[in-house]
Amino acid sequence: MAANAEKPEAESFTLSSLWSNQNQPGLGFLRYSEKPLPPSPPCIEVLPSEASTARYTAESLNLSEDLALLKGRVSTHEVFSLSNSDLVPGKYEGGLKLWEGSLDLVKTLRSEIQDERLSLTGKRVLELGCGHGLPGIFACLEGASVIHFQDFNAEVLQCLTIPNVNANLRKEPVQFATASVTERNTKADVRFFAGDWSEVHQYLLHPCENEDENSLDLKLEQDSTAGYDLILMAETVYSIVSLQNLYALIKKCLNRPHGVVYMAAKKHYFGVGGGTRQFLSVVGKDGVMVSNLIAEIADGSSNVREVWKLSYN
């Protein structure tokens, strides 16, 4: 994974860095179809008491002159016995890295609030593929009532996400997007879930279990208190083989008809097949949701990055 000069604030997602070990058996998207993936880790809820801070250190991340969050640093080698550039499909999905899209998403949410296009107060929020969890942390600090964090690996939640949430919610308040946020949101329902997108919906916030998708869609549409008001996700659409499962999960968990998705990602992930355009193609073919481009970032340091807003027709 490419690093910026000296001390990077976020990682750039590139083929050469992601799949540096693609010639080894079982590694790399270019060999993805040659061998079946190993079984996914079990879907579980990770309790805050299961957090491990032994490998965690925090440092301040200034997103603007008046917005700062804390970000953690955790060694991929120590947690997964992998080099810091490894991403192994079916075993580790890069959750210990801080990706550029996560920062883009926080900045976009802040801009949406400032322009009075979004309010997070009292909202039920799910962050998919959370890693550091900065967008979800920002939602909590902006008054969300429910913030659930999901990542593929329980180890990411234990060693990084939970310590990062604790560090940001304990620290002295800084100036956030709205002047009304003057103290920590200590009453929010903050929970953590690990597992693959094809199965983790069984543990997340939605009104029914063991029912077919049509029945679930109907209940979500009829019950205004069901599902999440916002789903946040950054850099989750890099792998083309996971896009259908990701979209199906969104439809199972997002409140109907008012739920909204904010997605930050690269326009294309060259060589690995995914990207915003590929995901939006999946969304468009279904015809249930519409998408709007909220922000485009072309700073010359990496591939073009985008933030999209998805909502029901």
From TrEMBL:
It is found in: Cytoplasm; Nucleus. GO terms for molecular function: protein-L-histidine N-tele-methyltransferase activity. Gene3D superfamilies: Vaccinia Virus protein VP39. GO terms for cellular component: cytoplasm; nucleus. InterPro entries: Methyltransf_16 (IPR019410), SAM-dependent_MTases_sf (IPR029063). Its main location: cytoplasm. Keywords: Cytoplasm, Methyltransferase, Nucleus, S-adenosyl-L-methionine, Transferase. Its EC number is 2.1.1.85. SUPFAM superfamilies: S-adenosyl-L-methionine-dependent methyltransferases. The keyword Transferase applies. One of its GO terms (biological process) is methylation. It is an enzyme of class 2 (transferase). Coiled coil: none annotated. PANTHER family: HEPATOCELLULAR CARCINOMA-ASSOCIATED ANTIGEN, HISTIDINE PROTEIN METHYLTRANSFERASE 1 HOMOLOG. Belongs to the methyltransferase superfamily. METTL18 family. This is protein-histidine N-methyltransferase. It comes from Protea cynaroides.
